[in-house]
User: What shape does this take?
Amino acid sequence: MLKASVLIGLALLCVGTASAAEEGEIRLMHSGADINNTESLQRGARNFMNYCSGCHSLKYLRYSRMSADLKIPDSELVKNLIFTSAKPFDEIGSAMPADSADWFGKQPPDLTLMARVRGSDYIYSYLHGFYADKTRLWGVNNLYLPGTAMPHVLYERQGLQKPVYKNEKDAHGSAKMVLAGVEPMTPGALKPEEYDQFVRDIANFMDYAAEPIKATRQSMGIYVILFLLVFFVFAYLLKKEYWKDVH
Ligand code: HEC
Assistant: This one.
């Protein structure tokens, strides 16, 4: 029974990975975000407030919780991170009015849980995925979210990329061009590795925002396992003691 269910589980896993590989030729990049790196989280918070909070809210997170967790002094918080009329105890709102969907064709979504839904690798990739496309409203498209309504807000930092196409045969054998990736076109203010770090910090911060307790939960997990291991030794000795006269 156990064997059968393990086999079924393995088979399902194989089917799952196979179809995932077929669907998305373009793979996500690896963010390398580290939730235990407080400095990175602080930089990420600053980047987010400066470049993203104009359009996106983090409505399940309060400024005060963020500053406490990320060890940001109150004076710094009020001076450099709150750009609206909000008070430290308020949720992190955006400067966007509710009807801004008219401006972009889509309302910029709240991003509190985005990293939990899509993962920090996705956010890292998405912010690397903008490329020039004159047919789009903002002159850019995105490798990871084709037809995105979001402008390339980090354009000055990253510069502009252009699409790279490759020839592929479809099911009927006729050739077609498919998008294979992007390559740099015009440079931005940051060097590529600086931009990587800039975006990694944002992805890291969004990972934190999605689950502020994550770092604590993970370190707590290690203690719980250690406790269980030690407990196991005592439980085993106790069991031996109880059973020693039975045989
Ligand atoms: C000028 C407004 C604006 C700014 C500034 C902005 N965004 Fe967006 N963003 C949008 C809009 C509009 C969408 C909806 C896009 C869509 O669904 O096509 C969006 C969608 C997203 C999504 C969701 C993508 C998905 O898969 O659904 C993420 C993640 C995101 N933005 C991250 C960011 C980050 C990080 C920043 C800061 C670096 C930022 N955005 C700055 C307007 C903005």
About this structure: DSSP finds ten helices and six strands in the chain.
